[in-house]
Design goal:
Layout (H helix, E strand, L loop, with lengths): L1 H20 L1 E13 H6 L9 E4 L5 E4 L2 H7 L4 E5 L7 E4 L13 E9 L3 E10 L5 E3 L7
Parallel strand pairs: 5-7
Antiparallel strand pairs: 1-4, 1-6, 2-3, 4-5, 6-7, 7-8
Length: 142
């Protein structure tokens, strides 16, 4: 009986893991592009590209273009829905470095929302200075 239950248990566990990380449904999310590290440290002050971070002496200081630098270092980017601090965020499941030049801009992503709160974008667009949506080319390995 044990020989029979072990493979069944393994299959059930595998199914649960796949379900936990598989996409749920396609949707479109709009908001502001933020870096998850600094936004996670201070979701009131670190919504833009320039961030307030503790310096070597413990005093808060402003770092210009911080979100861009974080994305270039591989810190995941996220969409802050409606651009409002404390609103829902969706981590973009794509290479952050490809989004670095668009930090703090209004973005729109269409794709599958994963159960863990990330979005796998099929299309990612950024609003330009004229208010027009421009598609961002995202290269992934899959």
């Amino acid at each position: 009986m044990r020989r029979f239950l072990a493979p069944i248990g393994s299959l059930v566990l595998l199914a649960l893991v796949i379900a936990a990380f598989s996409p749920t449904s396609e949707t479109t999310i709009e908001g502001t592009l933020v870096d998850t590290r600094c936004y996670g440290m201070n979701n009131e002050a670190n919504v833009g590209n320039d961030h307030m971070v503790p310096g070597a002496d413990g005093e808060m200081q402003t770092i210009e273009q911080c979100a861009t630098a974080c994305a270039n270092m591989g810190i995941p980017a996220a969409i802050l829905e409606d651009g409002e601090p404390g609103a829902d965020t969706y981590v973009i499941l794509a290479p952050a470095g490809q989004l670095a030049e668009h930090m703090d801009k209004e973005v729109r992503a269409t794709g599958n929302v994963a159960i863990n709160g990330g979005i796998i974008p099929d299309v990612l667009e950024v609003k330009d200075e004229d208010g027009n949506w421009q598609e961002v080319e995202i290269q992934v390995m899959m």
